[in-house]
Every structure is written in C-alpha cells, then in structure tokens.
Amino acid sequence: MAIYLTTFAVFLLVIAAMAVGYIFQRKTVSGSCGGLGSIGIEKECDCPEPCDARKKREARAARQAEWKKNQIL
C-alpha cells in the first residue's frame, strides 16, 4: 500500500510542477514535434476537393457566423 501512496504522491507533485510552470510562463501546451506542418503537410487529407459532409459543415459554420454578425443583441 505504501508503494501506491508514494506513486500517487509523485504523480501529484509532477502535475503540480507542470501547473506552476504553466502559470508562470503562460504558454499553451504544445507537442515537441510540431505536428504535420513540420514535415510539409498542410492539412490532414490531400483531397483536391472537400467531401460533401465537410462542405455542409463549412456552410453551416458560415451561416452561424453571419447570423451572429447580424444579431441585434
């Protein structure tokens, strides 16, 4: 049981240290490799034309943005 409590305490200390580091640096958490952009891929799929589902999502988002822009309240 002591091993579990010690392990739990170590994890709490690591999480607390990460939280303090975040508070002082105010940086966003990011990966170390840079993602797909670091290897020259601009987007996840290399399709020349977006699929119908994506077109619908983009149109819906554009309508919502336009509605919020013209909202009176």
From TrEMBL:
It comes from the Bacteria. InterPro entries: NqrM (IPR007495). This is Na(+)-translocating NADH-quinone reductase subunit E. It comes from Photobacterium ganghwense.
